[in-house]
Amino acid sequence: MQQHSKWMKPQPNVQVGDVVLVKNELQPASQWLMRRITRCYYGDDGLCRVALVRTTKGEYRRPISKLILLPIAEKAPKPQDKPSTSKSDREPEDL
Fold first, then answer.
1. 20 near 35, Cβ under 8 Å?
2. What's the mean per-residue pLDDT of the chain?
3. Are 46 and 1 in contact (CB under 8 A)?
4. H-type helices in 1-95, by residue range?
5. pTM across the whole model
6. Per residue in 8-26, is it b (16+ CB within 10 Å) or e — as a string?
7. Cα 43 to chain center, whole Å?
8. Which residues contact 59 (CB under 8 A, 6 or more apart)?
């Protein structure tokens, strides 16, 4: 017997403005369309079950099971401190 791990880990709830891939079983995954969520429809448990996605031809309702949330960072990483220019702080150069 194998352990069934489906739906065991909580997933983040999608929100308006999130970028998702829209699954299409008739196309390979490399051709799935990237879209933005414009509205969420919540179930009785408070989780988003259906989302309205905006396309170039209009807006469509899609179940969350047909959407793949893309992990996009909202804030850019902080830039590192400026590297020092003094000769003693630099690493030795290879010859």
1. yes
2. 78
3. no
4. none
5. 0.62
6. eeeeeebeeebebebeeee
7. 21
8. 38, 52, 53
